[in-house]
Amino acid sequence: MKVLLFTGLGALFFSYYWDDNFDPASLQGARVLLTGASAGVGEELAYHYARLGSHLVLTAHTEALLQKVVGNCRKLGAPKVFYIAADMASPEVPERVVQFALDKLGGLDYLVLNHLGATPAGSRSRSVQATRWLMQVNFLSYVQLTSLALPSLTDSKGSLVVVSSLLGQVPTSFSRPYSAAKFALDGFFGSLRRELDVQDVNVAITMCVLGLRDRASPAEGVRGVTRAKAAPGPKAALAVIRGGATRAPGVFYPWRFHLLCLLRGWLPHPRAWFIRQELNVTAAAAA
């Protein structure tokens, strides 16, 4: 019976992730505002969109890194690509970013929210000041960008793509502020999706649950603390793009994260022994 159950689950996941009707041509000429585009999954997202012929506005904190990504996008065939350096820790910045994108592209078909800030694991991440800063970057700026872009997305019947984390679905040790922000994203966009449905507004919301990002600074905060491996950036980025283009409600990469989220309902209070298998507790305590 167990063998049949797991075989059935495997077949279900396989059909869910491969039969997605993804048409790359649908992204040709699409107007995309992408945040957190200077490194990691965000950089790979920019390159995929460029290859597919999308018009891009890229934003991130570091201008020099953005300029490099913009140059690469042009080489890959992006018909239009602009950038604006922006620090999402400043509450006035989201309005400037969205207005810049609307001015340059004339509207939006996709808002891809990928930026994030990270505080070090351990005691340094526990202050109220650090938590307030992280909530502004990882949650409140997402709310601001969404509210400002929603009228244009409504006109274009576009899509919101939110790159989140497994820590927004399954809490773990030594990640309280970061996990709180990611759980807040899930609640906010889950509620917004229902509001849009009730109001018959044709804007899709795709929540993307990823593991650690490779080649991105936030992963460094927990490297050595968690034994989890980083997800390959190009593959994770392609999964995000496929989900957004097909207007899927959720994307899980790696796919087994979907199963972990389902299991959380069955095992809401894992024993300390199980948690320690995923943590280097000595490193966490020293952080």
Describe the protein.
The chain is built from eleven helices and seven strands. A seven-stranded parallel β-sheet has the order 3-2-1-4-5-6-7, with helices on both faces. Helix 3 (63-75) links the parallel strand 2 (55-60) and strand 3 (80-85). Helix 2 (40-51) packs parallel to helix 3, helix 2 crosses helix 8 and helix 5 runs parallel beside helix 6 (176-198). With 287 residues, it is of the alpha/beta class.
In N-to-C order, the SSE pattern is HEHEHEHEHEHEHHEHHH
- Helix fraction, binned, reads 40-55%
Instruction: Report the uncertain regions.
Output: 1-8, 13-18, 214-228, 271-287
- Strands ordered across the widest β-sheet: 3-2-1-4-5-6-7
The dominant shape is globular
Radius of gyration: 19 Å
Strands, count:
7
Distance between the termini: 45 Å
Which oligomerization state do the chains in this entry correspond to? single chain
- Class inferred from helices and paired strands: alpha/beta
